[in-house]
Amino acid sequence: MTGIGRSAAVALLGVTGRRIEVEAHLTSQLPAFSIIGLPDTSLGEARERVRAAAANAGAPLPARRITVNLTPAAIPKRGSGFDLAIAMAVLAGADVAPRVSERVVYIGELGLDGRLRPVPGVVPMVLAARDAGAERVVLPTGNADEARFVRGVEVRAVDSLRAAAIDAGALLPSVDVAPVAAPPVLPERTPVAELSEVVGNPTGVRAIVAAAAGGHHALLVGPPGAGKTMLAERLPGLLPDLDDDAALEVAAVRSVAGHGVASWTTRPPWEAPHHSASAVSLIGGGSGTVRPGAVSRATRGVLFLDEALEFPRAVLDALRQPLESGRITVHRAAGAAEFPARCQVVLAANPCPCGNAGSPRQPCECPPATVRRYLGRMSGPLLDRIDIRVRVPRVTTGLIRGEDGTTPTTAEARATVEAAQHAMRARLAGTGWSRNAEVSGAWLRGPGRAEPGATTMLDRALDLGTLTMRGWDRTMRLAWTLADLQGDDRPGGQHVREALALRGAL
């Protein structure tokens, strides 16, 4: 006597999901349970979890040979999120759950008592199921709040294998169980600081506002205590709320990172890793399941690297790809996982190890060779990808007393940023870009040309070799942002000169 049962699950590689067909073949041979189709160790152990959970759900598996195949077989399958789909396929093959459909995707880890435990990465799993044409996704109660933000597919939350089987037509008595709640997530403290608190540094304020408006990367160089971190922490408050598409992209990354119910947010995320962070923690990776790094968790938001020159050079150079393309690809033996990394990178650095280089009052104690080695930790190609590079001077009592109160509040600056971004979106409609930092060099030299004669200084620097072609493009992108902040139709000479001044540090 044989039986075939089918269900569906989702395999994740990075934040990309792939629908997996789960086939269960039951034969009247010696009892055994095997799983094939490139499972990892945790997935191979599902046979013991499924057997115990089915027994405790009131539907013990028959004493037959059970073979479960996960197709396509060439795709690696990792994790315990396949447990429920395997159990439902087996119950369907045993005629216990007759209404199991391949149009229904099952997600969840089984406990030995039959309860369903939440799993990470539910948001991209539900997205993949919807895009593959699934009509319904059955998942643990602990993942329900996380999955409800995905529209276009029915989400059914169940607390146990018994409830899932009854939902699929199994004739089992309903039993109340205490669902496994999602692990608690500490509330995140996204900096929302007041911009008007910054005194004595109008250039730094102008740089941060321009970075927020155009999506530009920034480098702040100055002595300790000058206010570099203070400026960077005010950037998230200047950014507008995320739209639905951006919020869903952020939620997918945060879901894979294990944020659970806190995956959904309408505010741009903020990541600030310590300078002892490794390249894997910054860009993502892992020996088993590939997890997103800080640059991906900060997508659509801000990645702040304080004491940037204390990071190893190899770690900083790992940022070169995401700064240019807005995505990061992590290659492992089992395949390549791609994560979004469309974030703004803000770096803060001292001008030398002692921090006093260039100060008129505090003499620098570092030998020139030491300073060169210190600054050399940031490579030229990485530095060339940063649009804004400004020096942040140490605030003196004279600067404080001379403060004229013209520093805008966070609300005022945010309104200016939103107006500038509205102008960008209107100008770039139909191009696939939405901010000036994204436009191509061909556009800048074509439809996005500046006023006649505005780029004379840039052209001369390019001919002399003091400016690269990438530097030319990035200066003009910044000039466009400065023009948008002032409400001008096109950048003129004054915008180009200010853009060059904002790229002056280092």
Structural key phrases:
alpha/beta; Rossmann fold; Helicase, Ruva Protein, domain 3; 3 domains; 4-stranded mixed β-sheet; 22 helices; Ribsml_uS5_D2-typ_fold_subgr; P-loop_NTPase; YifB family Mg chelatase-like AAA ATPase
Number of domains: 3
Strand order of the largest sheet: 11-14-17-10-18
Ranges where pLDDT stays below 50 over 5 or more residues in a row are none
Architecture (CATH level 2) name of the largest domain: 3-Layer(aba) Sandwich
| Arithmetic mean of pLDDT | 89
Main pleated sheet: 5 strands, parallel
The total of helices stands at 22
Task: Tell me the number of strands.
Answer: 18
- Portion of residues in helices? 25-40%
- Structural category is alpha/beta
Strand content: 15-25%
Q: Rg to the nearest angstrom?
A: 28 Å
CATH class of the largest domain: Alpha Beta
Shape: elongated
CATH topology of the largest domain: Rossmann fold
Corresponding CATH superfamily of the largest domain: P-loop containing nucleotide triphosphate hydrolases
- For the record, give the distance between the C-alpha atoms at the N and C termini, rounded to a whole number: 77 Å
